[in-house]
Specification:
Shape: globular
CATH superfamily: SMc04008-like
Structural class: mainly alpha
CATH topology: SMc04008-like fold
Number of domains: 1
Largest sheet: none
Strand content: under 5%
Order of helices and strands: HHHHHH
Distance between the termini: 39 Å
Oligomer: single chain
Number of strands: 0
Radius of gyration: 15 Å
């Protein structure tokens, strides 16, 4: 496989992942962090870092809006639930290990 085709396939997979997370708002970031050690905010940071590596200025809020499909504050108001004590305990245990 040539590099251009590989890049196109990777970009398509990334876009599908973003779309999947935008459609499945019931999936909370704390759950993603606990299961996979990354969340939507991580994707936004990676997206922003990739832009900056190419000399493109990108604001974190702009990157998050791309990932969330709306301003982050709006997503939080509509979809984010308060993490349970169990979710936070698991998160904290993974941070300390």
């Amino acid at each position: 496989m040539d590099t251009q085709t590989q890049t196109e396939l990777e970009a398509a997979a990334f876009r599908q992942l973003i779309s999947h997370f935008q459609e499945h708002t019931e999936v909370q970031n704390i759950d993603l962090m606990n299961l996979a050690n990354f969340c939507r905010n991580c994707l936004a940071k990676w997206y922003m870092a990739a832009a900056e590596e190419r000399g493109l200025a990108m604001d974190y809020d702009v990157a998050r809006e791309y990932v969330y499909g709306m301003p982050y504050s709006e997503w939080k108001d509509k979809f984010q639930k308060k993490a349970t004590a169990e979710q936070m305990a698991l998160f904290e245990s993974k941070q300390n290990s």
